[in-house]
Structure formats: C-alpha cells, structure tokens
Design brief:
Elements: E1 25-26, E2 29-30, H1 35-47, E3 53-56, H2 59-62, H3 86-92, E4 103-106, H4 111-124, E5 134-136, H5 141-147, H6 154-171, E6 175-176, E7 178-181, H7 183-187, H8 192-212, H9 217-220, E8 224-230, H10 234-255, H11 261-264, E9 268-272, H12 284-298, E10 303-305, H13 318-334, H14 348-371, H15 374-379, H16 382-399, H17 426-442, H18 445-460, H19 466-474, H20 479-490
Parallel strand pairs: 1-10, 2-3, 3-4, 4-5, 5-6, 7-8, 8-9, 9-10
Helix pairs in contact: 1-3, 3-4, 4-19, 8-10, 8-14, 10-12, 10-14, 12-13, 18-19, 18-20
Length: 495
C-alpha cells in the first residue's frame, strides 16, 4: 500500500503512529440516580484507570424538563443523571479537575443548556472556558431519525447547533462542538453501510448549515467529531471505521474545499453495540463486547466505551462497569496490537470490505443529495423507513435462525442464574425534586426572570443564543425554564 497512516485520506488512521504514541481515551458512559451518586461512579472509574468522563443524562434532562415537572414523573435518574440546576452540575463534577479531565456529554436538544451549565461549573472551580476539553453530542438530526428526544422544529434546532459551533470557536476552542452519531442509527436497526451513509449525510448537513451561517470550514471543521457503533461482524466493523475516515476526508476537501488537515480528519468515539447484548447468559456479553472493542481499536478509534455485561437487565453495577473498563485495559496493554498503526491494512479482505462499504455509502448519500439533503430525507421519512426495513430483515433472520444468537435462539439454557441488578430508588427521585424546589425558592427570582426575558428576546432575532443561555445559568435559571423559554419562541416539533 502506498498510503500511510496520518496522510490524506486517512484510511489507515489520522496519526502516523496511532496508539504507539498515545492510547485511545477510555471513556466509560455513566450517569444514574443523582448527581452525587453519578459523581461517585465517575471518581470510582477514574480511580481504576479511566481516562475521560462520559455523562449520561436522564430523559427529562434530555427533553428539557426539570425533575419536578409532571412530565418527569417516574423518569428522574432512571437512564442517566438528572441535571436541573447549576447546583446539580457542580455536584456532578465535584473534585474532578475539569482542566485536566476531558468530558463527553451525550445531550442533543438541550445541548446549549448543558454546555452553559458545564462552563459555569468550571468557573466555580476557577477554570476558564478556554481550558476546557471535551465533546458535546449536539447531533439533533439523528434524534428525528432514531431516538426521538427532540424538542424544537428542525430549523430552530439547527440554529442552536451552529450557535454552539460559532460560540466555541472563539470561547471554548478545545471543545468538540458536535459528535455526529451513527451509534443510535445502528441501534435502531440499520446496516453498517447505512450507519456510515446516514451519519456522513447528517455531517454534510451540519457543515453546510455552518457555512451558510458564514462560519469558516477550516475553523469549525477542526472541532467536528463522530460517534460510531461497533457490532459483532468483526471485519466489516474494522472496514467501516476505515471507510468513514476516507469518505469524510474526501467530502471535506472536495465538496467543502477545506484546506486545513485537521478539518478533514474524521475523529470518532466508539461504543460497543448495546442492542447486541442479551438478557440470557449475560457472561456471553463480555465476549461480544471484547470482539467489538477489538474492531474499534483495529479500526483506529480515538476513544472507546465498552458496555457492561449486565446492561440488558439494568444499569451497570460497579463490578460490571469495572470489568468493562478492564476489557479495554487488557486490549491496550496485553494484546500487542497497539504497536502497529492499522495492523490489518493491506489485508485483501479488509481492503475489499473498506472499498465496498465506501461505494455503498456513496450510493446512499447520492440518493439523499437528490432529495435535497439529510434534512429533506428525514422530513420525508425516507431514512427512517430504510432503517425500519433493515431492522425487519435482520429480525426475520434471527427468527428463522439464519442468524444465530448464542444463548437466545441456539445453545440456550433452561435455568438462568440470579443476577444482582442496580436499583434506582424512588427516594432519590423525591430528594431530587425537593432540591429543585428549594433551589428556586432561594434564588433572586427577579434576576432569573430578567435573564429569561432577554433570552426570549434574542431568540426572536438572529443573535447567538449561548451568551444569553450562560447568563440565565449564572442567574440561577433552571434547565426547564430555559428550555421552556425557547419552546415559547420556537414551538415544539411534532413527528
């Protein structure tokens, strides 16, 4: 092969020596019950060798409701940490040095609010925004495709996305302003080629929106990142990661005329496939996760989350979370594969799979272009329909046993052992609700109302909304109040 790692189009990796110089970031996704308990889990993982934070937020936080809202009932702290106030965020990050630890926040519709809370929490630690490192997912298009945790209509959502691009370029320059996500697309049932194509098509839409806003592709392009899934088809997944880099580099150079090398690089986080985990014979999930993690590393990921063995049953226990982290550490320090950049590069199988996936993804992207781009394809329901059809075809193979799932449709056990599961107490929800109410009662309501009024005024115009949102946070407005103020101006999206 003539192409080398660290050279355009980066098929073999974005750095010349890859992991020989620096390992990927081990970033275990976590968040549950309360800010205090989530903080304890983060510090537990950091003490056991994790090298970056990854925050999971509960459903009310994701869709802009405070913990005491009627819509939040029964969901507080269930699938992530509840964050309604600056006090919640400060507790979440207590005793974690934000100028040394990078943080990924999986949040989309309310991404500007959580970024504002993070910046304000850092200020309370005496750390200026310019020293912060991390990523905010901020990928709302895939919410309309695969997850459903959107709030505002697409045009308003895209405005907020590009507001973050613009604000961070000048105020938080080391922050990745988006994590364009194929993970949830794959979890919804897409094929590997569809995951690749739909993710890149969404990326094209974001870049075009930012350029239309007047932003410089060579500046904001350096802080774009991606988030891919790793499933069980080991060689296909490796090829998918390689094809992603090649595709994105060519698109940024040829379609958007980027000249900065960093703006052409497809940097990505990988998470092992949650939908591949089974509630039956959960120890088998350790093997599945290891295979998937290997594919991500051999494919050149920049950071990695390995799922825990018990996630098909509950949120991970401490023991399961530690084992998932140890899986990464064993790959990093005992497998030997980190001594080579793109160890499988040149393999006839890998090179052919890489080319095939690139070609198939380009055909899908061309269809999306013909429809007017990703936003039009989403609004027409075409992307959603394509994913649903792929999910249906896969399930038919499982049902017919053409696709074997060990422990499920083959090699099953009649007697499954009891498994310890993490329980979320109702008491924790009650305590969180009481804290939010006490927070509102203790603040200067006049200052909060003035800040919210200014935010609504700015939202009616064209100003970047991040400064006004940060001011709201500093004046102790809650997440729900900020989200509701924008709901009042933008409205809510109806599927």
């Amino acid at each position: 092969m003539t192409e080398k790692s660290g050279q355009f189009p980066y098929t073999r990796g974005i750095y010349p020596n890859m992991y020989k110089e620096r390992l990927w970031t081990m970033r275990q996704y976590a968040g549950f019950t309360s800010a205090k308990e989530s903080n304890e889990r983060y510090r537990y993982l950091l003490d056991h060798g994790q090298t970056g934070l990854s925050v999971a937020f509960d459903l009310p936080t994701q869709i802009g409701y405070d913990s005491d809202h009627s819509m939040a009932s029964g969901e507080v702290g269930r699938v992530g940490v509840p964050i309604s106030t600056i006090e919640d965020m400060e507790m979440l990050l207590k005793d974690i040095p934000l100028d040394k630890v990078s943080t990924s926040m999986t949040i989309n519709a309310t991404a500007p609010i959580l970024l504002a809370l993070y910046i304000a929490a850092a200020e309370a630690q005496g750390i200026v925004a310019g020293k912060l490192r991390g990523t905010i997912q901020n990928d709302v298009l895939k919410e309309y495709i695969a997850r459903g945790t959107y709030i505002y209509p697409p045009d308003a959502s895209m405005r907020l996305v590009t507001d973050i691009f613009d604000f961070c370029s000048s105020h938080v320059p080391n922050w990745n302003t988006i994590s364009i996500s194929g993970y949830h697309i794959r979890e919804a049932g897409s094929t590997a080629a569809q995951e690749l194509a739909f993710t890149v098509a969404n990326g094209i839409a974001y870049v075009q929106a930012a350029i239309n806003r007047g932003l410089d592709v060579n500046t904001f392009g350096k802080r774009l990142s991606f988030f891919f899934n790793a499933h069980n088809d080991f060689l296909t997944e490796i090829a998918k990661f390689r094809a992603a880099r090649k595709l994105w580099a060519a698109i940024m150079k040829n379609r958007f005329h980027a000249t900065n090398e960093k703006a052409m690089m497809c940097r990505f986080h990988t998470q092992t496939g949650g939908s591949t985990l089974t509630a039956q014979q959960i120890d088998n999930n350790v093997v599945r996760t290891t295979i998937q993690a290997f594919s991500a590393v051999l494919g050149g990921t920049q950071s990695l989350h390995t799922n825990s063995r018990d996630e098909a049953l509950s949120l991970p226990t401490d023991e399961a979370a530690k084992l998932a982290l140890r899986t990464q550490q064993i790959i990093a320090h005992e497998s030997g594969i980190t001594q080579f950049a793109d160890p499988l590069g040149g393999s006839e199988v890998i090179e052919k799979l890489t080319s095939n996936l690139e070609e198939e993804a380009l055909e899908i992207i061309a269809k999306i272009d013909e429809m007017g781009g990703a936003l039009s394809a989403i609004e027409a329901g075409w992307i959603q329909d394509e994913i649903a059809q792929s999910a249906y075809e896969y399930q038919k193979k499982v049902d017919s046993k053409e696709q074997v799932i060990v422990g499920v449709n083959q090699f099953s056990d009649e007697d499954e052992p009891e498994v310890d599961m993490l329980e979320i107490s109702t008491k924790a929800e009650e305590e969180q609700i009481a804290k939010v109410k006490a927070f509102r009662e203790a603040r200067d309501s006049s200052a909060s109302e003035t800040a919210l009024s200014q935010l609504k005024s700015n939202a009616k115009g064209t100003d970047n909304l991040l400064p006004a949102i940060i001011d709201c946070v500093r004046k102790k407005c809650t997440l729900g109040e900020i989200a509701d103020s924008l709901r009042e101006i933008f409205g809510e999206h109806q599927a």
